[in-house]
């Protein structure tokens, strides 16, 4: 992997992690385009995830600090409950998830579902409640949407924001809850992948530190831009415009990769 490729992958991770276009799907596409075997770059993927986590923690630092100071509150319970389906799916379907992450054929299915979610999101009208009106049953349903997004091509943010709005929560509250949900999901994904490295130290051989640093910094910077852009665009009900991008991407995948 060249330095330029590392920077591009960091940019892709940071942007697609928070925009409703699927970061795992995009990383798989660009690994294929660059001829990079994703499984041989597990450490690099972890570093990219760490990079995109930094702007998330910074942007929502006040909310996170509020949860730390007062952990026994409704929002904490909602986030825990919403994370359970993802944990269950990861444990039950670990083999399938790992194989899907390296299989281009799953992308068309995933991107099509993402496109449907984006189309529906801008048509939801009866979503006026604040985030604190979420119930535990809502958290379970939203958590199931997040669990489904382990399949490459299915956008985690797109599916969770749409599902949260479908439960009656306003756009800003839906986006905020989706991003807060992504913190334990991102940490869990890193722990899951780090455990693989611990089990196979050979994955640490031949590390290129300039590439790791470049990918980390680029993912962090582009992630910060993507979070703020996403929060702004959700308020304006413009998620359907990402649908056009998804359609173009599906055409590219079908023509060049499949």
How does this structure look, described?
The two termini are 23 Å apart. 41% of the residues are buried. With 258 residues, this protein is mainly α. It is built from 12 helices and no strands. It has helices at 3-18, 23-34, 42-59, 61-69, 74-92, 94-101, 105-121, 136-148, 156-166, 171-199, 209-235, 240-257.
Characteristics:
mainly alpha; 12 helices; 258 residues; 0% strand
**Biggest sheet architecture:** none
User: Helical content, roughly?
Assistant: over 70%
Overall 3D form: globular
Beta-strand percent range: under 5%
Describe the SSE topology.
Blueprint: H1 3-18, H2 23-34, H3 42-59, H4 61-69, H5 74-92, H6 94-101, H7 105-121, H8 136-148, H9 156-166, H10 171-199, H11 209-235, H12 240-257
Helix pairs in contact: 1-2, 1-3, 1-11, 3-10, 3-11, 5-8, 5-10, 7-9, 7-12, 8-9, 9-10, 10-11
Can you give me a brief rundown of this structure?
With 258 residues, this protein is an all-alpha fold.
